[in-house]
Amino acid sequence: MKKMLAMLLTGAMVLSLTACGNSSSGNAPEQSGSSAEAATESTAGSASEESASGGSPVTLNVTTTYAGEDTNAENYQEAIAAWQEKTGNTINDASGSSAETFKARVISDFEMGSEPDVLFYFNGVDSNPFVEAGKVVSIEEIRQVYPDYATNMKDGMMGASPVDGKNYSVPVNGYWEGLFVNKAVCEAAGVDIPTADTTWDEFMDICQTIKDAGYTPIAASFAEIPHYWFEFCIYNYLEPATHNILPESVDDEHGKAWVSGIGDMKTLYEKGFLPENTLSATDGETFQLFIDGKAAFLIDGSWKVGGIEGATDDIDNFTVTYVPGKNNRKSTDIIGGLSSGRYITKKAWDDPEKQKACVDFITYMTSDEMVSKFASVSATALKNGTQVDESQLSSLAVAGLDMVEGATGMAGAVQDQVTQEARVPVFNGMPDIVTGKADIAAAVAELLDLVAAGQQE
Fold first, then answer.
1. How many CB atoms lie within 10 A of CB 47?
2. Residue range(s) of every CATH 3.40.190.10 domain in the chain
């Protein structure tokens, strides 16, 4: 077990301190501007000193996913306020929640030449267009001018680009995905909370009992974010070592797994296990069903811990556990990884004044102390790792820690290998798929054709 925990800590373990998204909870002390400065000074290095002391104040346009219910949204705002005070520079923040609409906005900004100076964004195929167009700068190139840049990170864990194998972004923390549970709904329906031993068929029985008791079993918007159920339903027909392999055709092993998994999503809809308005509701609306005790289960990522902490006064009513599995996938095989990082765009790099400020800002935001604050016990690329005081964690956060500690396998999210455009037939088409208006195999085939077309461009 200790060996597995060590593997996950270096590969996919993500969990934020209770106060990360909810400083009003009183469970963790606030970090003042002066303490944030101290965190910076210990690891910022020569790049920070040079940037902070030279040139006139500049304004950086920064886009991140630290917004909405993200666990670290408040940490981020506190951090940029402290950096602005320290340097005299200004951050023009355009952050947004990491939904598909956010990704589309970022892509559009790059296409129109209005990309930010610093971008906190996904690695993998989502960043391929920026890399291929030469619109972001590699860490290798940055180190030619600032040799200490990101040297507190393990290069092999920074998320190399599929385009050329180079590192372009400096990561902060990774993620895990799990099944969040409203305990009160399960108790009212007379069902046990799923455990590491619960199978998919048993989970279906649990959902039926919850439905019969007058509650919604699963809080999910198939109109806006079908991807969590997409991942796990497909995962149920694969294994940790094979889940992340894209199908070459709809008829090969992986293509059939996709069709079968999406078929199980259709079954969830047909059985009435989803909200009545799942085909039109927003993620926020279905999340509220879960918080209000009208729905029992919610698949989401580790970043949701802070969102739940901030949305309830009874955090002990919520927990997180494994998504039940079937076939060769054990319920304890989870999805997780290091998928995002901080990029410097070429446009900012070519501006001498902004170049220094960008390097200083990212150095500040990715110091050992700052990453520890954002990541807590999560997966990081830090050479020195992070430390966590469990007494500062909520019961929900501790449950997440226990879940990851007991994991038997891990795979990255396969959707990260599919571009925004290629996802459309399945993700955007999910309402038609689950209602039978669109054929599952045809939708998957169309997605794979778009993937292939993109690779040939």
1. 23
2. 18-174+338-387, 176-336+396-456
Residue type, 230: F
Please tell me whether residue 326 adopts helix, strand or coil conformation: coil
Indicate the class that CATH gives domain 18-174+338-387: alpha beta
Residue 159 pLDDT greater than 60, yes or no: yes
Give CA separation, 415 vs 11, 84, 145, 194, in Å. Answer: 18, 36, 35, 26
Residue position matching structure tokens 């999503």: 265
User: Does the pTM exceed 0.70?
Assistant: no
Residues 6+ apart with CB under 8 A from 374: 16, 20, 72, 75, 76, 172, 173
- Could you read off the pLDDT of 19-53 as tens digits, one per residue? 333 333 323 323 333 333 333 344 344 444 444 44
Query: pLDDT per residue over 269-313, tens digit each?
Result: 999 999 999 999 999 999 999 999 999 999 999 889 989 999 999
Choose the CATH number for 176-336+396-456 among 3.60.130.10, 3.40.190.10, 3.40.50.300, 3.40.462.10: 3.40.190.10
